[in-house]
Design a protein that fits this description.
With 69 residues, the chain is mainly β. Helix content is 12%, strand content 32%. The chain has one domain. Strands 1-2-3 form a three-stranded antiparallel sheet, with no helix packed on it. It is elongated.
């Protein structure tokens, strides 16, 4: 199989955006946008009567607790 136009560098990409690697890295490292610790979210699944039947706690995007009521 022959391959043409193989890209070996980010600067050679024809469909690249306008942000540099340093701009993207600065965005990712912005704590106000991307929490690095302690961010918890609780998702409750309710039955037809509005009673919680499942509760899932996510900490930093990872399930840390699951309970069935």
């Amino acid at each position: 199989m022959e391959r043409n136009n193989i890209v070996c560098s980010h600067t050679d990409l024809s469909d690249k955006g306008t942000n540099t690697h340093s701009v993207i890295d600065a965005h990712i490292n912005t704590q106000e946008i991307h929490q690095s610790g302690g961010l918890s979210v609780t998702a409750n699944i309710l039955d037809g009567d509005g009673k919680t039947i499942h509760s899932i706690i996510f900490t930093n995007g990872v399930v840390t607790k699951y309970t069935i009521s």
